[in-house]
Task: structure prediction
Amino acid sequence: MHIKQNNRIKYPGMIQDFLDELTKNEFTYFQLSCENEVHSFYNENDSTVEFNEDYLKETDDDGEIFFLYYSKISSIVLSKNAKKEEDDELDSFSDDDWTGNRIQF
Result:
């Protein structure tokens, strides 16, 4: 995964905190919780995630594009664990794991 961010943009607080952590730590994936959905982004994928002023845009190697407005994001999880798939994606947003392998916003 390739991350593109514009340092001239003032991102919303949670997004800026997330980007700060994302750029200084090695994470295997991150998940965004939005309303009734969880969107997962993995380092091993060949995609580009571009952070714009109001939304993020992911373009995968097949040319498919996914847009997500920051206002729809309720929480974010960054994980260092190598586990690509959770048994239940919503479990990654629980408060049970305080091993330092993930950061939750």
Notes: The chain has one domain: 2-85. Residues 13-24 form the longest helix (12 residues). The mean pLDDT is 84.
